[in-house]
TrEMBL record:
Belongs to the methyltransferase superfamily. RlmG family. Keywords: Cytoplasm, Methyltransferase, rRNA processing, S-adenosyl-L-methionine, Transferase. This is Ribosomal RNA large subunit methyltransferase G. GO terms for biological process: methylation. It comes from Pseudomonas parafulva. InterPro entries: DNA_methylase_N6_adenine_CS, RLMG, RlmG_N, RsmC/RlmG, SAM-dependent_MTases_sf, Small_mtfrase_dom. PANTHER family: RIBOSOMAL RNA LARGE SUBUNIT METHYLTRANSFERASE G, RIBOSOMAL RNA SMALL SUBUNIT METHYLTRANSFERASE C. Residues 1-181 form the RlmG N-terminal domain. GO terms for molecular function: methyltransferase activity. SUPFAM superfamilies: S-adenosyl-L-methionine-dependent methyltransferases.
């Protein structure tokens, strides 16, 4: 893999999750452009920089030896990548402080460096949260590959920060620089809420939750076919999102024990708050984690999963396949993984390579619900 070489550092970087012979690199031209722009500004040593949505730590690790860096984002995998890449390049673990997306930063910051996220609601939430955390002469510099940079990103910077200047394109990347200007105080529209009829729930959703404005059609197809009569089974909702699968299952299975896992901090926070609203003080575990990687082997009876088909802008079944492998490791012999997926993804044949038996529980014209028994 090529090194990330910029005026700040030369770094050997890896992506997360680990994949043998991964053809993708842990940085792109937008990272390089952002770092070159920041270097050209010649910030005094000790200047405070907030880095947002740094997928694998390329930005924060590059700046760590030169500035006071706080990194923040909604991805546990991004936090894990940052920690591994700091160690990989001989940088102290405490040279960058990481703040999960739902927590409060400790400003003020002289510069904010942003990788524009796929979900613009996350960007809007972050820009609103910047209120009171920007130094008087601060700038917010956002970057992305042009194909992933919608016009609305500049509109949000203009609305919440100040006047925006767009850069020339370089290696198919572009920067948007917003200079802090007086803006009225804004009230965040997040978290948002929607209601379900069956089960009767109001679900709260923080800004980066998948299908924040309404139940996604895959989950809608899955809900009527969740297993019941689980007794005191140990159940994991893998990739839990706002927690709706676990909550609906828990309402049908009052003695089952639940663990809700997602790599999105905002998903886990949403799931925790929704669980408490629906089930009060019934105990459950909520984990921001790399799937079931840290779960004890053969410690679960049931895994529920509506697997994702992309990581940031990269589409594919790598994460789903990894989730299936993790589920197999975590399940007891005789335990079962229940999933919903698009018909065309061919999950039945993939699961058959890992599990003793795979059966179709239900189907719609677009989705299948499958049960795979270990």
């Amino acid at each position: 893999m090529p090194l990330l070489t910029t005026p700040f550092a030369e770094l050997d970087l890896i992506r997360q999750p680990d994949q043998a012979n991964d053809p993708l690199q842990a940085f792109d031209a937008a990272d390089e452009y952002l770092l070159e722009q920041l270097h050209a500004q010649a910030l005094p040593a000790g200047s405070r920089v907030l880095v947002l949505n740094d997928s694998f730590g390329a930005l924060a690790a590059s700046l760590a030896r030169h500035l006071q860096v706080t990194s923040s984002g909604d991805s546990y995998l991004a936090q894990l990548a940052l920690a591994k890449n700091l160690a990989r390049n001989g940088l102290p673990a405490d040279s960058v402080s990481f703040v999960p997306a739902c927590q409060t930063w400790n400003g003020p910051f002289d510069r904010v460096v942003v990788r524009v996220p796929k979900t613009l609601a996350l960007l809007e939430d972050q820009l609103i949260r910047l209120q009171g955390h920007l130094a008087p002469q601060a700038q917010v510099i956002a970057g992305a590959m042009i194909k992933h940079l919608p016009r609305a990103a500049g509109d949000l910077l203009e609305k919440y920060v100040g006047p925006v200047q767009a850069s020339l394109a370089r290696k198919k990347a572009r920067l948007l620089t917003a200079t802090v200007d007086a803006r009225p105080a804004f009230t965040s529209p997040y978290p948002s809420r929607y209601r379900l009829e069956s089960p009767a729930l109001e679900l709260l959703n923080h800004a980066n939750v998948f299908c924040r404005e309404g139940l996604d059609i895959g989950t809608r197809a899955f809900l009527p076919h969740l297993p019941d009569n689980l007794g005191n089974a140990r159940v994991a909702d893998l990739g839990c999102g706002n927690g709706v699968l676990a909550i609906a299952s828990a309402l049908k299975n009052p003695d089952a024990q639940y663990t809700l896992v997602d790599e999105s901090y905002m998903a886990v926070q949403s799931a925790r708050e929704n669980w408490q609203r629906a089930l009060g003080d019934r105990p459950a575990d909520f984990l921001a984690a790399d799937g079931l990687a840290g779960i004890e082997k053969q410690s679960l009876d049931v895994v529920l999963c509506n697997p994702p088909f992309h990581q940031q802008q990269v589409v594919g079944d790598v994460l789903a396949w990894r989730m299936f492998q993790q589920a197999r490791e975590a399940l007891v012999v005789g335990g079962a993984l229940y999933i919903v997926g698009n018909r065309h993804l061919g999950y039945h044949s993939k699961l058959a390579r890992l599990f003793r038996g795979v059966e179709q529980v239900a189907a719609t014209p677009k989705f299948v619900v499958l049960k795979a028994r270990k």
